[in-house]
Specification:
This protein is of the alpha/beta class. It is about 40% helix and about 15% strand. The protein is globular and about 75 Å long.
């Protein structure tokens, strides 16, 4: 059968190759392979950004690499070639799954490239297609720098001193059962790219305590600094303040290292965005979360992303974001659309909790998504902007949900 090998994108390219030897990825058991056989039909025809004509091949990855045998090319250049090839394969894999968010700005092949890719690039824009892609491009550079300062080995040692993980999923279920309305994940958020600064007098600990007083069983804390004016220091401060609510680290996860970092800082759950992460990354990161005692909220925006996520094992929380990534328009009917028919049946059969996200401002909004099948909601803007966030929660649900 014709086919080709595709490198699993869950491992960083810099960790996969050296000039002489193929090393095991430090996060994975030594006997796990890094290759997966895929049929020849998985071509990069789905990408809205690029059209590759790739005469496919097998990428030979073994103890020795055929393309590294040229003595006139330095080891450093050979590494650049292999890292670029891995990036190409990652992009091809993502596009085959309908992922439109590119991991990093496109680049041409490095010097001395003579490899298996025969391609033609069209409309290969080097400008981010939307704000999420801009965030991801920046995050890719930011995380690389953070990993240098705090390598994974250091984070693993710090895990012993991390506060015990709290039951995020259990807290949402208990709140839904107690109140009869979706469990609230109240978001501690100062600003957003689309709305600007939402609260000038922003004190994350005071806001978190007001949310807890208002009956929120769980909190979400923005940790992105550049685009949302958040920080991991805010997450850590809330965790150390005496607030008992489980905490979701609202970060743009692109690397497993970030999950360990979030746990060290006191997170009880993390966000995974299906528009950014291929299926293999999601599966891998969900497994890491389970090992660390974290919940994983997997966010989807459309039917294709929902179908991808429902095909994966181990999914407990699915967030439906009602915001269109291209236009930023919000339509809460998106939640109902994604939960109709067979999808809704599969979700109920598997006991998956669906979290409604974006566009929820009134009791009528909450009732609408609850009727569609939502058991929890993630809300920030409509309550954080209120002078008294506790009263804001009452206004959101039309009643007091505090015990």
């Amino acid at each position: 059968m014709e086919g080709r090998y595709v490198v699993n994108s869950r491992a960083n390219s810099s960790a996969l190759f050296s000039a002489h030897k193929f090393h095991a990825h430090p996060l994975l058991p030594p006997k796990i392979t890094y290759l997966r056989f895929m049929p020849q039909t998985h071509m990069l025809n789905h990408s809205p950004h690029k059209q590759f004509s790739i005469k496919s091949q097998m990428v030979e990855i073994n103890a020795g690499l055929a393309s590294m045998s040229n003595p006139t090319i330095s080891n450093e250049d050979l590494l650049k070639v292999k890292e670029w090839e891995i990036g190409m394969l990652q992009g091809e894999l993502a596009a085959s799954q309908g992922i439109s968010i590119r991991r990093r700005p496109p680049t041409g092949p490095p010097p001395h490239y003579a490899g298996p890719f025969e391609y033609h690039l069209q409309n290969e824009g080097k400008t981010p297609c939307n704000i999420l892609e801009e965030i991801i491009w920046y995050k890719d550079v930011e995380v690389s720098e953070m990993k240098k300062r705090k390598p994974l080995s250091m984070l693993k040692m710090l895990l012993d001193n991390a506060p015990p993980a709290r039951d995020f999923v259990g807290a949402l279920k208990a709140a839904n059962s107690r109140t009869g309305v979706p469990g609230l994940i109240a978001e501690v958020k100062k600003a957003s790219p689309s709305r600007g600064v939402m609260r000038e007098d922003f004190d994350p600990v005071l806001i978190a305590k007001a949310y807890e007083k208002g009956g929120a069983p769980c909190l979400s804390v923005l940790t992105d600094e550049k685009f949302f004016q958040g920080s991991f220091e805010n997450l850590e401060a809330i965790r150390n303040s005496g607030v008992q609510c489980p905490l979701l680290c609202k970060e743009f996860i692109i690397d497993a290292w970030q999950i360990y970092y979030a746990r060290v800082k006191g997170a009880d759950a993390i966000l995974l965005i299906a528009a950014v992460l291929p299926d293999l990354d999601i599966k891998y990161m969900v497994k890491i979360c389970k090992l660390l005692g974290l919940a994983a909220l997997v966010e989807v925006h459309n039917e294709r992303e929902m179908d991808r996520v429902l095909a994966l094992e181990g999914i407990e929380l699915v967030g439906i974001n009602n915001r269109d990534l291209g236009t930023f328009k919000v339509d809460i009917s998106n939640t109902k659309t994604l939960l109709e028919g067979e999808r809704g049946e599969r979700i109920r059969e598997r006991g998956i909790i669906v979290v409604g996200e974006s566009g929820l401002f009134t009791p009528a909004d909450i009732a609408y998504v609850q009727g569609a099948g939502v058991k929890a909601v993630l809300v920030g803007e409509s309550i954080v902007k209120q002078k008294d966030p506790t009263a804001g929660i009452v206004g959101l649900f039309g009643k007091n949900i505090a015990s």
